Amino acid sequence: MTLDTSFIREVPHITKRYPARSKILNAGEFAKHLFIIKSGAARMWFNKDGKDCTLQFFLEGEPICLYESLLRDESSEFTLETIEPTEVLVFCKEDILEYIASNPMFKDEIMQSIIGKMVNYVHLFLSMQIHTPEQRYAELVKNRPDIIHRIPQRYIASFLGITSVSLSRIRSRKQIL
């Protein structure tokens, strides 16, 4: 989900560039910033028994924020990492909270963003429980073809909860059909 970016003119921020595979925030750290991707791609992931599990992808125009950490002052359970060279706008927590307090419409927009993320997580959870890997891949192709064409296969496989080998087999079967 993208935010209305009109607040960018009013809220202090900096621009920062990250090389590919750079950590923006490590699991265990506290989120202190809201990021908006200007160019590039990033992902949110967690480590489960030494295995990398991708939960979400972020592309141009999308906000990156671990709201649960930022708003509740809790350490993050997730790592934010760039996938390719990425340029982001960086907003400090205090500046964003001050702007939210003085702009009810922006507060509503942030709430809609949070609700949208929750709905996406519920759909992802249900999909992991009731759909086959082939169905999850077909859903991703239908709903986010930009990810299929841009994100490396190992991250897509991690997002789908399968191995890269399994994803290769699914993709080859889809091309045959």
Give a quick precis of the structure:
It contains seven helices and eight strands. It is an alpha+beta fold.
What can you tell me about this protein's structure?
The strands form two sheets. This protein has a four-stranded antiparallel beta sheet with strand order 1-8-3-6. It has a four-stranded antiparallel beta sheet with strand order 2-7-4-5. With 177 residues, it is an alpha+beta fold. It is built from seven helices and eight strands.
Number of helices: 7
Overall average residue pLDDT: 90
Low-confidence segments: none
Strand order of the largest sheet: 1-8-3-6
What string gives the helices and strands in order?
EEEEEEHEEHHHHHH
State the name of the first-level CATH class of the domain at 5-103: Mainly Beta
CATH architecture heading of the domain at 5-103? Sandwich
- What would you call the structural class? alpha+beta
CATH homology superfamily of the domain at 5-103: Jelly Rolls
- Count of strand segments: 8
Shape: globular
Instruction: Evaluate the radius of gyration.
Output: 17 Å
Helix proportion: 40-55%
β-strand amount: 15-25%
Biggest β-sheet, characterized? 4 strands, antiparallel
What is the CATH fold-level name of the domain at 5-103? Jelly Rolls
